[in-house]
Amino acid sequence: MDVSTNELRLIAEIQDGLPLEPQPYAAVGRRLGIGELEVIEAIRRLIERGIIRRFGVVLSHRDLGYRANAMAVWDVPDGAVREIGGRMAALSFVTLCYRRPRRLPDWPYNLFCMIHGRDRTTVKQLVDDAARAARAERYPRAILFSSRRFKQRGARYAPSPTASGEAER
Amino acid sequence: MPVDELSDLEMDLLDGFQREFPLQPRPYAALAERLGCDEATVLRCLAEFVDRGLVSRVGPVFAPHRAGASTLAAMAVPSGRVDEVAALVSSFDEVNHNYERQHRLNLWFVVAAPGAARVRAVLDEIAARTGLEVLDLPLQEAFHIDLGFPLKWT
Predict the structure, then answer these.
(1) B residues 130-149 closer than 8 Å to A (CB)
(2) Which of A18, A37, A46, A54 is most worth mutating to test chain B (most B CB atoms within 10 A of its CB)?
(3) Are strands B69-75 and A141-152 parallel, antiparallel or unpaired?
(4) Apex A43 CA angle, A38 and A49, nearest 5
(5) Measured in Å, how far apart are chain A's first and last C-alpha atoms?
(6) ipTM field
(7) CB burial of residue B63 (10 Å; 0-12, 13-18, 19+)
(8) pTM for the full model?
(9) pLDDT tens digit string along A95-148?
(10) Residue B93 in contact with residue A156, Cβ under 8 Å?
């Protein structure tokens, strides 16, 4: 954890999005009791330090017609996961690529990719392409398609001043 | 709505500003200038995108584990209890993504909180209240640099 208390207050104000008004940083500043330029500088520092990894328009894939959202997982040898993961992450249609722990016997897979496509046939083809491009064809894999989305929003690391417990936005 | 039903202006607005959003006093006016329209149009389009669910927000995507703690969790929920368990999981403010997936492990969700202890407490509480096991699958290494989603090339 490497953010200050003031930064956490700022994160709480912006984590659900900037206000859609002409001077959004000034509006955030008014709620925090600081100036517009201080808000801008604080956000710039969070980006520079890599705490915010991307700042901009955050799309919702499913509602854009990319309805087949699949988690593709592989069981690859621990010694090869970095090399294979690095090759998969370089593919434009792989939107996330992470190493996570196995939980045997329930869950044998240690490499996770998110792949979005318009339909399942396309996504299956993309997973085949990813396996081939990353030279991971010989390792066990599974594709977990989503059937229902119950909740999706940005991560809320700081308690939100406007949060009402169960509200979803 | 499918991407191919959007106008060129809407497509450019969706696709072109997924990162490096202007850090200047009037960012939406800066977008408008680059798109060749006016600030009011940009604000109206973005508000519509949010209303229609195409855009979740204009703002930050945080790097995992830098501003707090998070994990991916999975559960094998009996088919008759999916709605009930999913509703309980979604009711936690710390849960941001919650999906049903087609697998024996059929409920997948992300828990994020200011610290690891709170993440663990949420997982424990869900396990206790449902009587079901919750698998904790924290990120160990990220291979991907999130640059957004290239709408125009997929």
Answers:
(1) 133, 135-149
(2) A54
(3) unpaired
(4) 125
(5) 26
(6) 0.77
(7) middle
(8) 0.77
(9) 889 999 999 999 999 999 998 888 899 999 999 999 999 999 999 999 999 888
(10) yes
